[in-house]
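Sequence and structure are no longer studied apart. As an example, we show below a sequence and the C-alpha cells encoding its fold:
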Amino acid sequence: MQIGDDLLHTAPVATTINGVPGTRYVATTGTDADNSCRMEWKPCATVQYAVDQALAGDTVKVAEGAYTGAGSNVVLITESLTLQGGYTTTNWNASDPVAYPTYLDGQSVRRVVYITGPVTVTVAGFHIVNGDTPLSAEKYGGGLYIYTSTVHLARSWVYNNQALYSGDRGGGIYQEYGSLTITATQVYSNISNSTGGGIYYRDGTFALVNSQVYSNTAGSSGGGLYLTYADVTLTGNRVYTNTAQGGTANGGGVDLYRCYDQLLERNLFLDNQAGDRGGGIYEYALSTSMLTMTNNIIAANRADTGGDGLYLAGASSAQGHLRHNTVADNAEEGLRVGNFTVVMTNTVLVSHTVGITTSAAGASVTADHTLWYATAIYTDASGGGTILTTDDLSGDPKFVDLAILDYHIRGDSAALDAGVWAGVSEDIDGDARPAGQAPDIGADQYPLRVARWVGPASAPPCGVVTHTLRLTNLSTAPLAGVWLSDTLDANATFAGFVTASAGSAAYVAAGHTISWTGPVDTLAPTFITYTAQITPYLTDGTLLTHTATVSDGISVFDAASITVTVATEQATLKKSAPAQAAIGQVVTYTIAFTVPAGHVAYQPTVTDTLP
C-alpha cells in the first residue's frame, strides 16, 4: 500500500474469538436467532443449537417439553458437557424430570442422541423416545449411539426406539469402546433386528446401577442386554419380560459374551425368554472370565434349548462364584453348565424339573448349602462334567407372593438360619445378615429376628423367673403391624409384671399368653419382659416350655421357645434337745422336718439313732 511517496508494507493478522463458557438454557418457548443460550431469560429453542454453542465442560439445561431435530439425529455431541433435562423456565436451579418431563423425540425417523469422540458426557433427566437408526454405516442404536466416549446416563427413560435394518444392534442404546454408566434409568419397549434389544455394549467398561430393563426384544441374542468384551457391573437392577427371538438366540435377560470381570449383585432377572439358551442369563466365557454373582434372584425365565434360569459355558478355566442367589420357578432347568467352573454357596434352587445340569466334559459345579424343593431331579451330570453337592437341605422356601414374582421369604421359610457364613454382610435389599452366624439361604434375609432368654434357667416350685424376648429388625425400614404371642407353660402362672420398650404388651388370661403388638424399628431392638411363677408340687427335673408365635403381617410362625427346669429343694431336718441332763432325767428330743414352700413330701420316713 502506498500513501503519497511512502510505501507501506502490510500483513494479515489473525484474530481468534473465543466463546464464553457457561451454562446454556433451552426451552420450547425460546429462540435460536442471535442467541448464545447463556441467559436464563433468553433460552434457545433447540437442544442441538445450544449444544453447538456450548464449550467443553459446559452444562446445557433443558426445560420441560418435547424437542425434535433434523437430519440423522436429534442431538449430536462431540465435546465434553452435561446435558440435563427436567427444568422449568421459572426455576433453572433444580431438576425434577418426573414433575417436568423433557422429551428428546426422534419421531420414528431419526436417531435421538449421537455421542462420539474421546469426550466425557453426562445425559440426565430425559425421555429418549421414538428413535430409529438411519440406513448408514452407523446404523446401530435407535435411542443412543455412543462411540469411544465416556458417558453417564442418569435418571432417564429410553423407550420406543428401534434398530431394525438387517444386522442392527442396540434398539435402545448402542456403545462401542469407551465406558458407559447407567444409573436410575428405565430402558424398555425397544427392539433390534440383531443383538441387544434394550442395550448393546462392547469393548470397555459397562455399569448398570439401580435401573430397570424390561419388555425389550432382540431378533437375536440379548433381549434385554448384550454385553461383549467388557468389564461388567450390574447392581440393584430389575431385568424382566425381555425376549431374545430365534432358534439361536441366547440370553433373554442378558447375554454376557466373552466378557472379562463381571460383578452381578442384588439384581432380579424375572420372566425373560430366549429362543435357544439362557432364559435369564447366558454367558459364553473367555478362558480368563470371572463371574461373581451375589444376592440375585433368577426366576420364572424360559429357554427353548436349555438353562432356563442360567446357562454358563465357554471355557473350563472360566470361574463363576455364586453366593446367596435364589434360582426358582424357571421353566425346566435352574442352571445348565457347559465348559465352566462354578462354585455355589447358600443357594435356593427350587421348582424345576432339573436343578443343575452339566453338558460338557469341562463342566465343574460345586454347590454347598443348597435348599432344594419341588424339583424332580436335583442334579444331572449325564452330559459330562462333575457336580458335587454338600450339606443339602430340603424344604419349602415360603416365598411371599409368587403371583407377583415376589421372591422374598416369609418368617416360616426353610431357608431361615440354614446357611453357612460366606462373607456376605447384606442381602438383596441391603438388609443386614448376621455376621459370623448362620445366615438365611438365598438372596433374601428375613428381617425380623426373635431371641429370648430366662433367668434363672432353673427354679424351684413357686419360684419366680423373668422372661425377656428381643425383636430385631435387620431391614432398612421400620416393620409395622408386628404382633407376638408367648404362650406360658401350663405349670406356670403370670406373676403380675409385663413391660415392653415399644408397642403394647399385656397378659391375656383367656389364652394364658403374653400378647404384644407394635412396630419394630431399625435403630433399636424391642424388648418384652414379664415374670412367671412355677406352680407348686412339681417333681425335680420337670421342664416348662414357653413358646412364642410371631406375625409380620404376611406370615405367622413359631419364632422362639425356651424351657425352665424345675429344681426342687431338699427338705430340712433339725434336731433339738437340752444341752445337759441329770442322771435319770427324761430327755425330750424334738425333730423338725421342714418341707420348702411349694413342695410336698410323699410318705417321708425319719429315723433317729439314740445316743
Q: What stands out?
A: Residues 13-18 have pLDDT under 50 and may be disordered.
